[in-house]
Amino acid sequence: MESSSVDTITALNDEALSALFTEARTHASFADTPITEDELTAIWNLAKWAPTAANLQPMRLVYVNTPEARERLGVHMNEGNRAKTLAAPVVAVLAVDNKFYEAIPTVAPFLSGMTEVFATDDAMRGEWGTFNSALQAGYFIIAARSLGFAVGPMAGFDSAGVDAEFFSDGRLHSILVVNLGRAGEEAPRPRMPRLDSAEVVQFL
Predict the structure, then answer these.
(1) Helix (H, G, I), strand (E, B) or coil at 7
(2) What would the pLDDT profile of 152-186 be if each residue is shown by its tens digit?
(3) What DSSP character marks residue 104?
(4) 3-class DSSP state of 96
(5) Beta strands 59-64 and 150-154: pairing type?
């Protein structure tokens, strides 16, 4: 009997685990190396496989990759994040689509009856959108790292200002800003401690 794809899953080697996790860092300095639209699309083509509840995929992505657009974004970044955002080759604005339910016929046809529920239940829509877009944001960071990019995710920005600047129709709501590029010469800050498994893991 042929093995299924599930049977063939193997662990990543130490080099890959190091690049994605143990030695991965948040970067604030980037080389002056352009990133192509094809490379940016490749990040999404990995990140899109994130697991989301009922496959609803509420996160949307805007790449800010011109100096003019970065200036518009920089105004809304916290002071400590502004200079590095302006200097990054590309900045990704991750957002939740407040009308993600409109894609249900495509991504989750078995839930077609839920379209109207999400359209009318603000609390439910917000809960599903926020949680699942956060999952997708995590996958986006890992996808970018896996393709060799330095990544600088930031929550320090005026979300309402970014929304008004880039998403004036109210459909998208920004949740994370991520600087992207090749690693610059400036070393990342020293790594901060992580909690040990004994402090966070229970076995029942």
Answers:
(1) helix
(2) 999 999 999 999 999 999 999 999 999 999 999 88
(3) H
(4) strand
(5) unpaired
CA-wise closest residue to 134 among 73, 168, 71, 176: 176
Token pair listed for 55: 């496959």
HSE toward the beta carbon, residue 86, CA cutoff 13 A? 13
Quick one: tokens of 168? 């004036």
pLDDT tens digits, one per residue of 79-107: 999 999 999 999 999 999 999 999 999 99
Contact 85, 163 (CB under 8 A): no
Give the 3-state secondary structure of residue 68. helix
Q: What integer pLDDT is reported at residue 1 of this predicted model?
A: 46
Q: Render pLDDT for 116-145 as a digit per residue (tens, 0 to 9).
A: 999 999 999 999 999 999 999 999 999 999
Q: What are the CA-CA distances from residue 57 to residues 52, 113, 139, 145 (Å)?
A: 6, 17, 12, 21
